[in-house]
UniProtKB/TrEMBL annotation:
Organism lineage: Bacteria, Pseudomonadati, Bacteroidota, Cytophagia, Cytophagales
GO molecular function: oxidoreductase activity
Keywords: Oxidoreductase
Organism per entry: Pontibacter chinhatensis
Protein name: Short-chain dehydrogenase
Positions of the UniProt region annotated as Disordered: 307-340
């Protein structure tokens, strides 16, 4: 025999379950269909951009990939086209407004109007902030902030005229929590988060939904292209180990799925990896405590010196540890995702 309290709990649980099921059904019915849509991915020739292109190709999307390296673009095009995807590649430096405008005009006139824009192009500078120069800050802000501004403004008129579109801005958890030894990167990603959230508020009335992604570390294979300063070999080894560890990172494929699903459902934000989600929550609850913890982390990172303000690429900073079993996931991703 059920008590009154037992009956109340039963109906409460049933109500919550019904609401959850109803929400899932509504999300499923209103999900954006990528099939037949033209999707532009900046930085799409390798790494995360290429991973997302593969997943979108399986859903029938028409792909436009832009990047600065023609060889990488052609490698990506051959792979995707070889698997049946319709794909166009465009050499373009997204930090150059004229190049961006010319690319968008060419794509929309000669290929197809752009339905979905994914601002993915990126750059990483790692090392003590005292070894950074204005050059690193300018490079980061140009590609992470001005690049998305140029592409967004270029596609916006046509999206408004057609009555809708989707934009995914791939920032970083570093755009919510500024990380030691990644200050130019974090600062520019903060700028992108602010841009993206403001765009969402203003563009929703045109049925253009903007999603801000703040992923944690993911195994894309990209560390080898980072610019490293100071004690570059020690910096790079630690960075690559963190990038490869299943405790602190996830596969690029898993992260890409989460971000594309957020875009599909028109979500405002998406954060990937448990590590990043916990850090984001802690920062919201106590920004001071979070920065104090990060200050302790900074104390055990390599200090100033080494090559100082000079810089080396990741692939120039390899050590036995950075090429060991500790980084096996990242090493496999390098080959798989056109990073080598």
């Amino acid at each position: 025999m059920k008590t009154k309290d037992g009956n109340n709990l039963f109906w409460l649980a049933a109500g919550v379950s019904a609401l959850a099921v109803g929400r899932a059904v509504i999300r499923s019915l209103t999900a954006y269909d990528f099939n037949g849509k033209t999707v532009l991915i900046t930085g799409g020739s390798r790494g995360l951009g290429l991973v997302m292109a593969r997943q979108l190709a399986k859903e029938g999307a028409r792909l436009v990939l832009c990047a600065r390296d023609e060889t990488e673009l052609e490698n990506a095009r051959m792979e995707l086209a070889g698997n049946g995807a319709e794909v166009l590649v465009q050499k373009c430096d997204v930090t150059d407004e004229q190049q961006v405008n010319d690319m968008i005009t060419n794509v929309q006139n000669e290929f197809s109007p752009i339905d979905v824009l994914i601002n993915n192009a990126g750059i990483i500078h790692a090392g003590p902030v005292a070894e950074m120069t204005v050059q690193e800050f300018e490079e980061a802000i140009n590609i992470h902030y001005w690049g998305p501004i140029y592409t967004t403004l270029a596609v916006l008129p046509a999206m408004k005229a057609r009555g809708g579109g989707r934009i995914l801005n791939i920032a970083s958890i570093g755009g919510r929590i500024s990380v030691p030894h990644l200050v130019p990167y974090s600062a520019s990603k903060f700028a992108l988060v602010g841009l993206s959230e403001g765009l969402r508020a203003e563009l929703k009335k045109y049925n253009i939904l903007v999603t801000t992604a703040t992923p944690g570390l993911m195994q894309t294979g990209s560390p080898r292209h980072a610019y490293i300063k100071g004690h570059h070999k020690e910096e790079y080894t630690l960075f690559k180990i963190m990038d490869s560890s299943p405790i602190t990172s996830i596969s690029a494929e898993q992260s890409a799925r989460q971000m594309l699903n957020a875009l599909r459902h028109g979500d405002a934000t998406v954060t990937t990896t448990a590590f990043a989600t916990i850090g984001e929550l802690l920062h919201r609850l106590s920004p001071g405590l979070t920065t104090d913890i990060l200050a302790l982390v900074n104390a055990i990172l390599p200090g100033e010196g080494g090559i100082g303000k000079n810089r080396a690429r990741g692939y120039e900073s390899e050590t036995p540890l950075s090429e060991s079993w500790l980084t096996e996931r990242t090493q496999k991703a390098e080959t798989k995702n056109n990073e080598v």
